[in-house]
Amino acid sequence: MSSSAPQDAGHHRLWSVDEHLADVLAAVRPLEPIELQLLDAQGCVLVEDVTVPVALPPFDNSSMDGYAVRTADVQGASEEFPAVLAVIGDVAAGSGELPTVGPGQAARIMTGAPLPPGAEAVVPVEWTDGGTGGGAASGMTPASAAPEGAAGEVRVHRAAEARAHVRARGSDVQAGDLALAAGTVLGPPQIALLAAIGRGTVRVRPRPRVVVLSTGSELVQPGEALTAGTIYDSNSFALAAAARDAGAIAYRVGAVADDADTLRSTIEDQLIRADLLVTTGGVSVGAYDVVKEALTTVGSGDGDEPSGSGVDFRKLAMQPGKPQGFGTVGPDHTPLLALPGNPVSSYVSFELFVRPAIRTLMGLPESEVSRPSVRAVLKADRPLGSPAARRQFLRGTYDAEAGTVTPVGGSGSHLIAALAHADSLMVVPEDVTSVEPGAELEVILLG
Q1: Which of 127, 235, 314, 357 lies most in the core, judged by the most C-beta atoms within 10 Å?
Q2: What is the rounded distance in angstroms from the CA atom of residue 395 to the CA atom of residue 415?
Q3: pTM for this structure?
Q4: Pair 268, 306: CB distance under 8 Å
Q5: Is 25 exposed, middle or buried (0-12, 13-18, 19+ CB in 10 A)?
Q6: Maximum CA pair distance of the chain?
Q7: Among 238, 303, 312, which residue's Cα sits nearest to residue 20?
Q8: pLDDT tens for residues 142-175?
């Protein structure tokens, strides 16, 4: 930032939101690619183009249960004058040796079964008597109940065009086609395609492992009884869920008491399973802000903390979420983001800084790192106030059809209930102190 940057308390400059994010992303590198089994690769980002080794489907096959026929043999067939064909056998899905269909012949065929030699089309069983000698069939006779070799006759009541009800070889994808491009996030349909073309493993960037750790002696785990002066720990649950939502594997650590040595040793213990550490609470200027106490000395070489590290605590020109910490800890320089303890502050900070870090670790393109934003018209009863020289993030509900956004709850950084009903964040720029109803705002979409 230039020398004209705002100063805080006379000596600590205020960082802008954009500067802090750029600083975080500059220190985060995509994880190294690994080869994973298909199901283990779900949610991961593909690092190489995958081409199709064999055509899909690999052979002409039937899209219906019915009879494989020659078109000439069923030309002009009707219910009054059915074509009577000799049934020469069964063709089931997975059949190896196939009967050859000659003039005046048909083969019973099941959905997905290969089209036998000589056959040009498939007539659905509903267009026939099913080999019973009666009226239109409603289904196939089970193979176990069929005559030996499924021999007999079938009456076909309708003509069939060439290739009717036949899935052509390569009609899905051809050998050599690009199946999936590098950069694709592997969801269920992509996993299905990889399996269909015979890929058992795939090369991806793994999902980042994110350890979420809340601090505060006042925190009690949900399900336990509250005592005087205690509250339930919601931040670690919110942030672990948000990390999963961003694409990470999240590990939630129960609240750590306000003790710097305990916090340092807990972080040491967690480094083995962390690609990214996120703490919440203890980053302000209070006497018990232990995250700041524990991590500002990290890397000083006194032997009591993770070495090779450095965490910088700074104040940002934003509301909520002014106090923030960022740096690396441990021998592998694992990134650590220290977020404020107020629930809304920590969640907004996660969306602005942690989510982009996770998405960068995943190897996603820059366009998919941050949440999408839109412009929307403020729908409110009164103007929105915002502090000067601060970028404010207010909770809102966005109506895409109307192109409007409506505030939810107040601006307090402890209002979890309002956050639960919001699907967006309204952004008030640093140089704006009041937004009138009907004015246009930037809106970050959280859904």
Answers
A1: 235
A2: 10
A3: 0.80
A4: yes
A5: middle
A6: 100
A7: 312
A8: 655 555 444 589 999 999 999 999 999 988 888 8
